[in-house]
Amino acid sequence: MQKLQYLFTALAVLCFAIPAFADGGSAVVSLVPIGAGLGMGLAAGMCGLGQGRAVGSAVEALARNPGARGGIFTFLILGLALIESLTLFTLVIVFIKM
């Protein structure tokens, strides 16, 4: 855990080193595309994990009670649509910021 803390501290120092050592005549570095890419990747990855957990739980519920297929399927589709909409909202925000 201590090594991980040192790693993040070193990364933070390196991120702040760009403005500290910048000269007056150089162009401004835009970090918006990097942040947008990281945000979209994080949103897509976490939504994928959420969808996997939702489907896994639905399959487990169907295995326990096959008679409740209709209700489980309806809420599963609704839940998956809402989870996927989070990724699409992030994509829209990325396009607006870029």
> How big a fraction of the residues is strand?
under 5%
Mean pLDDT score: 84
Instruction: Count the DSSP helices.
Output: 3
Number of strands: 0
What are the SSEs and their pairings?
Layout (H helix, E strand, L loop, with lengths): L1 H19 L11 H33 L4 H29 L1
Question: What would you say this structure looks like, in words?
Answer:
The protein has 98 residues and is mostly helical. It has a domain at 47-98: F1FO ATP Synthase (Up-down Bundle). The chain has three helices and no strands. Helix 2 runs antiparallel to helix 3. The longest helix is centred in the middle third of the chain and has 33 residues, at 32-64. The chain starts with a helix and ends with a helix.
Quick overview:
This protein is mostly helical. The chain is 83% helix and 0% strand. The mean pLDDT is 84.
Provide the descriptors you would attach to this structure in a database record.
mainly alpha; F1FO ATP Synthase; 98 residues
